[in-house]
Amino acid sequence: MRFPSSPRRSVILYASLLLMLLAALAARRTSSIVAHLNWRNMSAASGARSKNVVVLGGSYVGYNLAKILAADLPESHKVVLVEKNSHFQHVFAFPRFAVLPGHEHKAFIPYSGLFASSPPAAGEVVRARATAAQPHALILDRPLPDGSTEVPFEYLVLATGTVLPPPGTLHTEGKVEGVEYFRQHQEKVKDAQRIIILGGGAVGVQMATDIADLYPSKSVTLVHSRANLLPRFDPRIHDVVVPYLSKLGVHLELGSRAKVPSEGWPTDGGEVTVELENGKTLKGDLVIVATGQMPNTAFLPPALINSSNNFVRVEPTLQVSDPSLPHIFAVGDVADSGGPKAARPAIVQTEIVKDNILALIKAGVGKGEEELELRKYQPGPGAIHLTLGLTNNIVFYDPEKEGGEPEIVYRTDGRADMDIEAVWERRGGPKGDYHA
Question: Which of 271, 278, 373 is nearest to 316 (CA)?
Answer without folding.
Answer: 373
